[in-house]
Amino acid sequence: MDWKNTYAAIYRAKKDYLKPVKHFDDIGFDDLIGIERQKSALIQNTKRFVDGLPANNVLLWGARGTGKSSLIKALLNAYKDEGLRVIEIDREDLDELIEIADMIRHEPYKFIIFCDDLSFEEGEKGYKGLKRILEGSIEKSPENIKIYATSNRRHIITEYNRDNEGTKVGRNGEIHYSDSVEEKISLSDRFGLWLSFYHGTQQEYLNMVDSYFKEYKGDMEHLHHEALQFAQQRASKSGRTAKQFFNYFSNKE
């Protein structure tokens, strides 16, 4: 792989190769509204990583459509000229992480391995490969690799009531989790930076709508009324909904 001229790649498990990405979403940080705290923390962590300073693996978790994946795209656009590269991998292929890490360990670039919509159901074993790369084994984890993952939930392995059967409360009120719960919590704990995302307020949603309609010359009150109706139909006031409304309303006009 010519990483000098390839800024991102997608791992294709069936053919066991990294497919170079030729066409990028040109989204920037200024396009992402209402997530200033998360944006600032992620930029700071990534800048430290690119500069060769200690940085964390990152779990971006929370409501759908709130900008988690878009932030990763914006990071690449912002820092690709400073040596940042992104490899996207599906959760089903996480057992291949060690092999991918071996391929890029000695490259003179900083790699974010990105897994979107990360979660594991009972019986799935891919999380074991993820744990190895997050924590390291007898071999030290590569210093030029960080894992950035998005998920709709904080604890990314499904929990069941039966998992809590062995949980006990000590005399001092200390909670001693069962082995099953400990294993499931420990995976999330291996991400040093957790960023939570929630649906915004009505005004934050309308601000996102306005950011897409900067050139709009019509009645803004009518536009906002239509935007709120659109959001109500989808039970979501997220950035994704604002963009979908822009596509819908532009075609309607």
Topology:
Layout: E1 8-12, E2 17-20, H1 36-50, E3 58-62, H2 68-79, E4 84-88, H3 97-104, E5 110-115, H4 126-135, E6 145-151, E7 168-169, E8 175-176, H5 179-189, E9 193-197, H6 202-212, H7 220-234, H8 239-252
Parallel strand pairs: 1-4, 3-6, 3-9, 4-5, 5-6
Antiparallel strand pairs: 1-2, 7-8
Helix pairs in contact: 6-8, 7-8
Please, could you describe this protein's structure?
The protein starts with 7 loop residues before the first strand and ends with a helix. Strand 1 (8-12) and strand 2 form a beta hairpin. It has 8 helices and 9 strands. The protein is elongated and about 65 Å long. It folds into 2 domains: 8-197, 3-Layer(aba) Sandwich (Rossmann fold), CATH 3.40.50.300; 202-252. The longest helix has 15 residues, at 36-50. It has helices at residues 36-50, 68-79, 97-104, 126-135, 179-189, 202-212, 220-234, 239-252; strands at residues 8-12, 17-20, 58-62, 84-88, 110-115, 145-151, 168-169, 175-176, 193-197.
